[in-house]
Please model this.
Amino acid sequence: MPRRVGLRDDLRLAEDRFEENVSLTDLREALMKVGLQHLDETEECLEEWGYGMTFD
Model:
């Protein structure tokens, strides 16, 4: 599988997979829906980005 760099690359992969044009809005909504179904992993990602850090 090719290395994904960004949303446009994901869009191309989806279009290759489905062999038709995929709306960028639909792709974003699908990514959000899947993210909401995996809140623990989403939280881990946010923590990696520095959210939730305290400097007491």
In short: Residues 7-48 form one domain. The helical segments are 7-18, 24-37, 39-48. The radius of gyration is 15 Å.
